[in-house]
Amino acid sequence: MTKVTMTVNGKAVCGEVEGRTLLVQFLRERLGLTGTHVGCDTSQCGACVVHVDGRAVKSCTMLALEAEGAEVTTIEGMADADGGLSSLQQAFQDHHGLQCGFCTPGMVMSAAALLAENPRPSEAEIRGYLSGNICRCTGYHNIVKAIMAASGQDVSAIAAE
Amino acid sequence: MYSVEFDRPATLEAALAGLKAEDAQALSGGQTLIPTLKQRLAQPSKLVSLTAIPSLQGICVADDGMLCIGATTTHATVAAEAGAHYPALARLAAQIGDPAVRNRGTIGGSLANNDPSACYPAAVLASGALIRTNARDIAADDYFEGMFATALQEGEIITEIRFPIPEAAAYMKFAQPASRFALVGVFVAKTAGGVRVAVTGASEEGVFRWGAAEEALSADFSAGAIAGLSLPADDMIDDLHGTPDYRAHLVKVMTGRAVSAAQ
Ligand SMILES: Cc1cc2nc3c(=O)[nH]c(=O)nc-3n(C[C@H](O)[C@H](O)[C@H](O)COP(=O)(O)OP(=O)(O)OC[C@H]3O[C@@H](n4cnc5c(N)ncnc54)[C@H](O)[C@@H]3O)c2cc1C
Ligand code: FES
Ligand code: FES
What we know:
heterodimer; A: about 160 residues; 2 domains; five-stranded mixed beta sheet; B: about 260 residues; alpha+beta; Uridine Diphospho-n-acetylenolpyruvylglucosamine Reductase, domain 2; Uridine Diphospho-n-acetylenolpyruvylglucosamine Reductase, domain 3; 3 domains; four-stranded antiparallel beta sheet; about 30% helix; binds flavin-adenine dinucleotide; binds FE2/S2 (inorganic) cluster; iron (chain A)
């Protein structure tokens, strides 16, 4: 076992982990942050996306020890300071960007990373950016709509799906 | 995943020493190796991470005009920073996998792995780049030795890739939509010395140069110049995504598109 230290959602955390411990295992099983989901465990679906030093990564495809010293943000860190939904999360609710909700933590984390890079993305840019996030329920249209709305763009002309 | 020791040294020397242990293996972005370990297709005793070694990171232009990319530079960094010098290479990097894969995956890892459907091998071979390791420089023409096989020796670490910058170049990828790897990808590079065409995704032998197209395009750099050519389907990959004939046909189509895009 090796000691790992990182900042998760603004709090310094540490723990003893094995070489093979994945970042997602550390977050879910050690820290109890079960908002980050494991959909495929084969690097395909994006349900496990978190931010490491501000960048979206698949936490099922990164070892916990690789995050030594890093700033990690999970879906639990996305709420506003008062504990309410952030405007991005609220947009997912308002525009029905989720159904079962399993993919949603990864979708929100990818969307947040996109908006940090590109504050007013086009529909094509959103779809391109979400190419590593799979949703089995929504058909994606309302996810795209939610992200456009969260970036302050008019979505009234986009048909309800 | 089997139990494995983990080490993340801060210098190349320490990484080379770490890789001397029996069955030790280098870890870069982990976007290929971690899935492989989960499937228990590899069982290293120890992983030596290269991601904390500053000398292996970053992009610069050397005095001789070569674009030098450190082995652990991520696809996202190449996409964001190589464009000013070598736009076709930056565009290739921007099409690898998805954003989260690009934020971890590295050029050195891709080249060491030499997946027959990977994108970078086509750029390296078409550009006539140099693969620099801790021990030597390897010319692209001597580096790729077939599917998942390279000239790298046990414990040898790629430190940098050095690209001569062509006059014109483009990469055209026909993506396999589920994996996002290349079903067929073609990189065309035009230099003062002639045109080089490298094909990935198509052959059982991994990335290869299409000599007949190079000759035709060196005489006339236009998509029409390859109209009369055809590629034998004998060594092409046959899987549920495409037959050998389909792949052979796609190589020609993608070569034509790459030439048009490079104009
Ligand atoms: C969903 C998904 C989609 C993808 N799509 C594409 C795609 O479209 N195109 C594409 O080309 N690739 C694609 N990839 C693969 C991706 O580009 C990987 O990042 C890359 O193949 C391996 O790089 P890595 O840094 O992750 O290497 P790792 O997984 O860490 O290592 C791979 C291998 O290289 C060795 N190695 C790593 N670095 C070095 C070094 N410096 N010297 C010597 N040996 C080294 C390791 O020991 C290991 O054997 C995809 C991957 C995923 C998960
Ligand atoms: S659980 Fe990580 S990509 Fe699916
Ligand atoms: S809402 Fe069910 S998988 Fe996306």
